[in-house]
Amino acid sequence: MLKTAFKLLVLSAACSLAGLAAFLFYNRNRSLPFITAAQNALKWENKASFRTEKTPAAPEVGLQTSAAPAGPLQPCPDVPPNLQGVLRVEFSTNRSLEDVRQRLGPVLQEGGRYKPPTCVAKQKVAIIIPFRNRHEHLKHWLHFLHPILIRQQLDYGVYIINQEGDSVFNRAKLMNIGHVEALKEYDYDCFVFSDVDLIPLDDRNLYRCSDNPRHLSVAVDKFNFILPYATIFGGVSAISKEQFLKVNGFSNTFWGWGGEDDDLSQRLYFQGMSISRPDSLIGRYKMIKHGRDLHNNPNPQNVHKLKETAYNMNTDGLNSLSYTVREIKKDLLYTFITVDVQAPAG
Ligand SMILES: *[C@@H]1O[C@H](CO)[C@@H](O)[C@H](O)[C@H]1NC(C)=O
Ligand SMILES: *[C@@H]1O[C@H](CO)[C@@H](O)[C@H](O)[C@H]1NC(C)=O
Ligand SMILES: [Mn+2]
Fold first, then answer.
1. Does the beta carbon of 258 lie inside 6 Å of ligand 2?
2. What residue owns the CA closest to ligand 2's atom 2?
3. Of 170, 161, 76, whose CA–CA distance to 112 is shortest?
4. pLDDT for 45
5. Strand intervals (E) in 164-302
6. 97-289+301-340 — its CATH code?
7. pLDDT-based confidence at 55, cuts 50/70/90?
8. Is residue 307's pLDDT more than 70?
């Protein structure tokens, strides 16, 4: 009897601890102070966009290598015909870039560029990946993403923006730099900002831009396939050139981990945009497990900076961006740009 009571006590203590942990986790970083009305609006918006989107017919083939037809090319169809739907993704294989190069050599162009040979792509998409010391992840990303992007019939290029040195990391500034550097090469009209460790589990999740900025990594395994909060815009997101210019890009002043994506999310809201999303089945992702990076600790100041988004956004962003390009390396699979982001000393 006593034993049972004790067990119950332990159990209920464990439950409330777990509950508390979940509560703390959930609330820890969703205090975007400025928007409350906006958050509610976005919640509804998100509910609406969570309805199931039309799924294309089951595909048979993978990569399209067929030669261009004679005569002028027609626009690519709205729904790419060769998508596979749900994908199998695992990270246990030791991949080599050489394998990926061999497999994709016939279809890719130097710099990680591709254009569908049989139709005119709907959008010109620059994929921007902020980077430092994650070569293992990059191999997986290239292995999985290139075939997906090819099947999605995008006219695209892959830009790895590598922060030089080991000063404090600045993800948002690397994104801004990627935007500027990619535009120097090609007339991109859409930018997909992606972490290097996020792999989509469904190729119907199109790496394209829409009428509103689009958050693509809706349901990540790390967060138990649940959207952590309604305004989240981190992980993988697609934003058109116009939308990005309208908000002056990302802030350049978020050093260390956290908040830069929430700041962008607020910028979008302040400019009258809302966040669109694929449904939570198509928007599934697997994240490569890893420990915390060196010199990228959560920065407690960043959460306070979110109170100042409205005041800062017109002067802190693309129009105040300053950096130095150290090196641009062209690989078949990507353009690798090493930059000095002018990190504060210390
Ligand atoms: C993976 O491949 C690299 C390069 O070929 C090799 O150095 C490394 O030891 C391999 N790792 C495993 C776990 O097989
Ligand atoms: C909150 O957590 C999300 C998910 O990890 C992250 O993208 C965001 O930057 C965090 N925000 C802050 C203010 O730390
Ligand atoms: Mn990660």
1. yes
2. 29
3. 161
4. 40
5. 190-194, 198-200, 214-215, 219-220, 236-240, 284-287
6. 3.90.550.10
7. very low
8. yes
